[in-house]
Request: fold
Amino acid sequence: MSASPEAPGVVVEEVRERLAGSPGELTPHRVAQALRETGRPVGDAMVLAVHEALRRDVVGAGPLEPLLRTPGVTDVLVNGAEAVYLDRGDGLERSAVTFPDESAVRRLAQRLAGLGGRRLDDAAPYADLRLADGTRFHAVLAPVARPGTVISLRVPRGGGYTLDELVAIGMVPQTLGLLLDRILLRRLAFLISGGTGSGKTTLLAALLGRAPSHERLVVVEDASELRPEHPHVVALEGRPANVEGAGAIEVRTLVRQALRMRPDRLVVGEVRGGEVVELLAALNTGHEGGCGTLHANSALDVPARVEALALAAGLGREAAHSQLASAVDVVVHLARGPDGVRRLAQIAVPARTSSGLVEMEMAVEVPAGPDAPIEEGPALGRLVDRLGGLR
Reply:
């Protein structure tokens, strides 16, 4: 935890050890008594500083709590005891927060994992879960991780962004905002691709918020992050196995359940496994307007990514490409620029080649940089035709 002049780490640790020897509620009175026993000064400022430091260590995210409450923060990353970073949308920046030692980081990671009902110890040195407030938590204990225990926290944005706000902050060019709006309202099936932290979920939530209010959105996710501002959203969330290795619910299973729930739009928050087979099948059997996100390096790499996921799930290469060609109308790709800012980078359309496989053809490309001109690609005309004319 951060060590302040009033409550240096050594004082906090001494008080913690004395309090641990006599269980009871953490109160300023008990802290003052422990300070007296250590021979430390017992001024009001010292008592309150030590009490607050200990309270943060057993409630919420401990010393990370102020960072998680920082306006605009999307990620808080802990790389061992000495390095804590945060991202406020402009790339990673190092914070002033540190921990006294590796054991403090490990305690915090284990406590947060415990809040989510997960085991985190030397036998199970990593955990991935969603905390009660919606924060996505991931941790890997040392020595598996270096330079020490690593914690990654993905912070949900209260209320989410609207498409207009994404245009205002420069993530989406205004003309392409209109294009995305038309893609949604024309009920084209689309995938949003990009790397980790590129803004896929943010953009998908903003677009779903513009879906007509009478539509029923059924959202399936491995860990609940997608929370569109829409009056009719039903969410299904996967569940990992418990400590005994039982009770897991796969996203693939939930996609099949979602199809029986009369969705107007089937949404898979992140396609990263066998659920790609069920999603493509659904989009090929009358479920218009379906969508999801997918990790990929570019829009052009999406067919290879879909193929790999489908093959692992037992669907052959030719069948996977055939399903993709008829299921997905558009791929929207997001990327971080050299300045660390997330931006819409590409919009592409799938096309079947003479070999029967699918390749993506570029419709629109936005070079890196806030003022870079939008480049039209050879597939823009086909996309406009699918939209019923927009130029």
Remarks:
- The chain has a mean pLDDT of 87.
